[in-house]
Amino acid sequence: DAGITQSPRHKVTETGTPVTLRCHQTENHRYMYWYRQDPGHGLRLIHYSYGVKDTDKGEVSDGYSVSRSKTEDFLLTLESATSSQTSVYFCAISDLGANEKLFFGSGTQLSVL
Amino acid sequence: KQEVTQIPAALSVPEGENLVLNCSFTDSAIYNLQWFRQDPGKGLTSLLLIQSSQREQTSGRLNASLDKSSGRSTLYIAASQPGDSATYLCAVYGQNFVFGPGTRLSVLP
Question: Is A70 near chain B, with CB under 8 Å?
Fold first, then answer.
């Protein structure tokens, strides 16, 4: 299995609080992604990174920010969590141009009450 | 905007059957297509990757084909087993990865 660790695995929080999810990889892959998976919507891209300090928005980026200060770490922050952000969040990595397979972490179940 | 659909949404078959899952995409300007498997409560696992210049890829009992001009891919599973029960998703890579909604497969003993 690709070395991807997501933390925490589960989190329950209240509306209006900030939340940070962490993705850590040991594969030295250049690209890292944050997705959310919801019934009826499938997997949707939130943000992605193509290098240290290089990030871009996906299709559902509103209410989310990201940071990548090191190759191995990609953080997703919900500035002020809302109930609509209750979801399963997946981190993924790829090494486009070398090995284009996409490898996923185990996910974080986030509940915003 | 790229859109990916998968048919059927769910499929239930007896053990031992051969089966085909379908994936369609609207924009043929892709670099590759991947098939993934997702078990309940788990992340996605890449099964097969087909480059846009390829027609098919095989791994064990799995065979995936790609017809880029018609915007279609199929995943063929031979001699299905209960352990194949999972959700299967396809994803195309153009400007970014776009996923289909998945086919939920149940293989009955």
Answer: no
A57 C-beta neighbours (distance < 10 Å), count: 14
Q: Dump pLDDT digits (tens) for A17-45.
A: 999 999 999 999 999 999 999 988 889 99
Q: Is the pLDDT of residue B16 over 90?
A: yes
CA A47 to chain centre: 7
**Residues of B whose CB is below 8 A from A92:** 44
| Cβ within 8 Å, pair B93-A100 | yes
What one-character DSSP code corresponds to residue A28?
A: -
Residue of A47, A42, A44, A43 lying closest to A32 (CA atoms):
A47
Spacing of C-alpha A25 from chain mean position: 12
Cβ <8 Å between A100 and B49: yes
Q: What is the mean pLDDT of residues A51-61?
A: 94
Are B96 and A58 an interchain contact pair (Cβ–Cβ within 8 Å)? Answer: yes
CA distance to A12, A87, B36, per residue, from A48 (Å):
24, 18, 20
> What mean pLDDT, rounded, does chain A reach?
93
**Contact at CB, B32 and A100, closer than 8 angstroms:** yes
Is A39 at the interface with chain B, CB within 8 A?
no
CB-based contact A80:A13 (threshold 8 Å): no
